[in-house]
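Here we describe the complex-level prediction in full. Unlike the single-chain runs in Section 2.1, the two entities below were treated as one system.
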Amino acid sequence: MIKINFESIFEPIEVAEDLSFMTFYSTIITGEDILIKVEIEPLGDPLLPNVYNLAFGPLNDGGGINDTANINHKNIGKMFSTILSYSLFFLQHNADNNINIGLDGSSDVRAYLYHRMFQTNKKHLDEFFSSIRVDWYARLLRNQDIERDEDGNAFFKPRPEPFDYKRANHDLYRYYMFKLKKQAI
Amino acid sequence: MNKRVEQNMNKFRELAKKGASTSSATTSRNSRSHDGLTKGIRTKEDAAIFMAELNAIK
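The structure predicted for the assembly as a whole is:
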């Protein structure tokens, strides 16, 4: 289980001046410390304005994030606490811009991890964040067809909604977002 | 916000003032760009299954 605690995080090593990334070292099972990079960048989806995507992982050869790496962190709770703590800092710095930060549950494993993390740490995270989840829907038109894109494929649109904590664990959301609670500023 | 969390926020703030080098060997700027979650289709297979189910209903 991932235990989030903003009072216990890894020491940040670097923070970009524009806050677009930061780095820290996380200890893995073998005892080795590996550099983890956290990036927060505009999502770039016109249907989800003011959303910044959160990505993290060890560095690849090009200095980017290897987000497919399979790493056994010694303290995964502290690792996620560091990442979310930096997200809190980012949101506080942009408090006037009504920004959301999002985590892409691009695979079932990741989506399940994020889903459980928000579920099991609801009390702690609710002190700082408002949690929002996103599913995608295709609009049913009055002619009983669905809305389609220019290629004739179903036109799915994101629909943000509050996290339904009673929703079954296997019924995962596609995207997990959070924004600053006003009292956390 | 308690004192310990505020101290952590200050650490981030101080490091941001120094400004990490974007050409640093360890933290060179990631060139990865996000193209958004256009259409929200997780995979092409998901879309194909959805369309097949829709067509079956119609």
